[in-house]
Design goal:
19% strand; 42% helix; 30 helices; nine-stranded mixed β-sheet
């Protein structure tokens, strides 16, 4: 085999192309490759040198090409050497007599990768800095002899032997972030230091200043040099004067510097080391203060202060109506090393959620005029697509409540997103209320909540052998029903339809409306200044009264339990039961008490429903009907004093500050209607409600009771549970890991990694959902995944794709400290795929 750069070009570039195509035209402006081409002549390779006579060469080349085409000899080929520039345009090819041969085979140089510099770098990847320096000093490029002389001394034999690596990049990475074995060797052996100094000078033009001979002393200086060099290369403007004296690599070393930094950031083993080193160097050089006047820091976030700057730019993109800027920065930082810090990742996730909400509001606001011409059109618009804005808002508010922002950097984007949502909802609300005022409620020709039991449960139970679970969930608004529907598809055929809540849209009225015969039998009485729901004159105010009402109708065929108890196996259902009612009131009760902190209850409730439906299927139930009493509105965008003044009149009942019952007169802020026109039968003549989204009292972040799409459009989900044996599940395993095996967490927002592996290489599995929980020794949940791009905000499951590492934030309970286990669970059965044991070791 040939030696040196000439041999590399002959053996690795030209010969493979000749073998592949049978015909190669080599254009050589500087006549650098002529001897290489002539040296390839053999019994099977005909070389045509066009240097002497173009006309004769054409004839010879034509004959040679014909011979190649007619020959049956394997490897027969023709090489045409042309000492001229390669024609680039079609016009230039038409006048080039040898272009036709290139069309029959291939050409050299083919692209930028065939440039002389690129070939030299490929031939000697360990000497990129020296090669680039030689090319910079030699117009037209150095000779082969000069390139061959670079690194001819042998290439760092001690370093290669000590570290057990080969390439310059591997040596540099090992010096910066050695493995445990490499660390032991570097600290235990001598003699490698002088060679390391020569290597660093050759690879990076770094002349070590430290006189220390230990690995620690050398590594400290190299880390600072390499990271600061990448920072300089990426900076699109001049360095601040105070930093111009800090040593950094020449531009020739840019490729190796950027490659090594990228490796250190992206390798799981070295990323935590990178973070610690970058933070230390940033503080040592005082970069945040010295670069405070620099507006454009480039594209890379070598140091943590740059990541903060990019976050601010993304926020500005949203607040200044430049979403493309925000999208670009979000995409660029999806896999940033600084996402390994849970606090940072949660802030970027909030910005991502804010951008989704703002863009959804802008998009739907354009559509509003064409969808608000009638009550039916408004309802269809909301059920069909507009409810997606509520999903975006809920996910945004979940991200906000889960995010820690001590510096206040997120205030502007939170304010912007909430203002956009407020503007859209008020616009839609005005049209919706106008149509309700004209047409009444519930809407004609559509299913009211008061019909749900009779139509979906009672009629079904008339057939012998049918078993139905009636799952009554308090405050499950419509967009959550859509999310739940998607989660239940594994259990059978799932259908969702919109229903329309009984007014006032409060729990004691809405739950009564879900009982048998409610459409004709429900009435509201006035008692002790409050509402008393009656079913055929029987009080159904409390849970006990409502369950007794059902028990009286169905006897031993009826049973009831709390949803959580049933899902966790704490309740038993007799085989005689055909109607099982499962109750859940956690969403409403928690949101009423602490709305700022209680959004996490929503994923927990949906998780329990999913587990319960799976158990119902195994128990032989045919159908699960999931209903709710009312929706809700998240009023986080309300400003101080943002309340609605009550209309004049005598109002005996104030239902959750969103509806008044009694007598009065409409005004510009309020609608007052006959109670019967709003589907309210009983002791009340009239009802009043705000035209806007404002309540009658202040301080309401979460509310229901009134007339808005979010409060009164609710889901009904019917799951037709499949019987029979399921197809076998592909064998798979889920691996949970934290910081390459670390056993203690130092932050309340640790970032964990999940990996899905298929044991069957031929299994057709695109991905699975996994539930990640931190549990104490008693099984209490002390940490859950935080919403983000990898986590479904509705139920906090993580979507895993085979072979792809997924990072997620685990939000720990602030009140918990001690030992715990992180478990990856099947969200349907709660069976554990994997677990790791950890312990808290918080710095603060």
């Amino acid at each position: 085999m040939s030696i040196g750069i000439a041999g590399f070009i002959a053996d690795s570039i030209l010969t493979p192309r000749l073998r592949q195509t049978g015909c190669l035209v080599v254009y050589d402006t500087y006549q650098r490759y002529r001897d290489i081409c002539l040296g390839l002549a053999s019994d099977t390779v005909r070389v045509v040198d066009t240097s002497e006579s173009s006309i004769e060469s054409r004839e010879v080349a034509l004959v040679a090409l014909r011979e190649v085409g007619e020959s049956n000899v394997t490897g027969k080929a023709v090489l045409v050497y042309v000492p001229a520039k390669k024609p680039e345009t079609d016009e230039a090819k038409q006048v080039d007599p040898f272009a036709i041969y290139a069309e029959c085979g291939t050409v050299f140089p083919h692209d930028d990768g065939d440039e002389y510099l690129s070939l030299c770098l490929r031939a000697k990847p360990d000497r990129t800095t020296e090669i680039r320096r030689v090319f910079a000093d030699t117009p037209g490029g150095p000779s082969f002899a000069v390139i061959d002389a670079i690194g001819s001394g042998g290439g760092w034999p001690q370093l290669r032997a000590v570290l057990g690596v080969e390439s310059a990049r591997e040596i540099l990475c090992a010096l910066l972030a050695p493995t445990e074995t490499q660390t032991g060797v570097l600290k235990g052996q001598e003699g490698w230091q002088p060679e390391a100094r020569d290597f660093l000078h050759a690879a990076l033009s770094l002349t070590l200043k430290t006189r220390g001979k230990t690995w620690n002393a050398i590594a400290d200086e190299v880390w600072r040099f390499v990271l600061f060099s990448e920072f300089v290369f990426d900076l699109p403007v001049a360095l601040p004067e105070a930093l111009q004296g800090v040593p950094h690599a020449p531009v020739e070393a840019k490729p190796v510097t950027e490659d090594v930094c990228h490796r250190l950031r992206t390798e799981p083993r070295s990323s935590s080391v990178y973070i610690e080193r970058a933070q230390s160097i940033e503080a040592e050089l005082n970069l945040p203060e010295l670069c405070s006047a620099v507006e454009d820091l480039g594209e890379k976030d070598t140091f943590p202060f740059e990541e903060r700057t990019f976050l601010k730019r993304a926020i500005k993109g949203i607040t200044s109506d430049a979403p493309d800027v925000a999208h670009s920065l979000l995409a660029r930082h999806e896999d940033s090393v600084w996402m390994g810090k849970g606090e940072n990742r949660s802030q970027w996730d909030l910005v991502r959620a804010a951008l989704s909400l703002v863009e959804a509001c802008v998009d739907f606001e354009r559509q509003v005029p064409e969808h608000v011409r009638s009550l039916d059109s408004v309802l269809d618009f909301y059920v069909g697509s507009l409810r997606e804005v509520d999903r975006c808002q809920r996910e945004f508010e979940q991200a906000t409540s889960d995010c820690f922002d001590a510096s206040g950097v997120l205030v502007a984007v939170i304010t912007t997103a909430r203002a956009r949502y407020r503007h859209l909802t008020e616009k839609v609300q005005a049209a919706f209320v106008k149509h309700v005022e004209a047409a009444g409620w519930p809407p004609a020709g559509r299913m009211s909540n008061a019909e749900s039991f009779d139509r979906l449960v009672a009629d079904y139970l008339k057939e012998n052998g049918r078993r139905v679970a009636y799952i009554m969930v308090d405050a499950l608004r419509y967009e959550l029903g859509i999310a739940l529907q998607r989660q239940l598809t594994e259990e059978g055929t799932v259908e969702i339809q919109a229903a329309y809540a009984q007014l006032p849209s409060i729990t004691l009225v809405g739950m009564a409306a879900l009982l048998p015969g409610a459409k004709s039998g429900l009435s509201l009485a006035l008692e002790n200044g409050g509402i008393l729901p009656r079913m055929n004159d029987v009080p159904v105010v409390s849970v006990l009264q409502r369950m007794s009402f059902l028990k009286k109708q169905y006897g031993d065929r009826f049973s009831e339990a709390l949803l959580g108890d049933f899902a966790r196996g704490k309740s038993k259902t007799p085989d005689t039961v055909d109607l099982l009612v499962l109750r859940s009131g956690e969403i409403d009760s928690e949101m009423e008490a602490t709305p700022e902190m209680a959004l996490s209850i929503i994923p927990n409730t949906l998780k329990l429903i999913r587990v319960a439906v799976h158990k119902l299927r195994a128990m032989g139930f045919d159908r699960a009907v999931i209903v709710t009493d009312h929706g809700f509105f998240l009023n986080t965008q309300a400003e101080a004093g943002d309340i609605c003044a009550k209309p004049s009149g005598t109002w005996s009942v104030n239902a959750h500050d969103r509806m008044l019952l009694g007598d009065g007169t409409s005004d510009s802020n309020n609608v007052v209607m006959g109670a019967d026109r709003l589907g309210i039968r009983g002791d009340f003549a009239q009802a009043a409600f705000p035209r806007s989204m404002a309540p009658y009292g202040g301080g309401h972040i979460y509310f229901h009771g009134g007339v808005s799409l979010q409060e009164v459009v609710v889901p009904i989900i019917v799951v037709k549970l499949e019987t029979g044996t399921r197809p076998p599940v592909a064998r798979m395993s889920v691996k949970v890991s934290y910081k390459s095996g670390a056993k203690k967490i130092t932050t309340r927002l640790p970032v964990l990694e999940l990996l899905l592996t298929l044991d069957d290489l031929f299994a057709q599995v695109k991905g699975i959902d996994v539930l990640l929980e931190a549990q104490d020794a008693r099984g209490n949940v002390v940490g859950e995944t935080r919403p983000g791009s990898e986590v479904n905000p509705a139920d906090r499951t993580v979507r895993l794709v085979p072979g792809q590492v997924t990072q997620v934030i685990l939000g720990m309970d602030p009140a918990f400290e001690g030992k715990f286990a992180v478990k990856a669970l099947d969200p349907t059965t709660l069976a554990a795929y994997d677990k790791i044991d950890l312990e808290t070791d918080y710095l603060v």
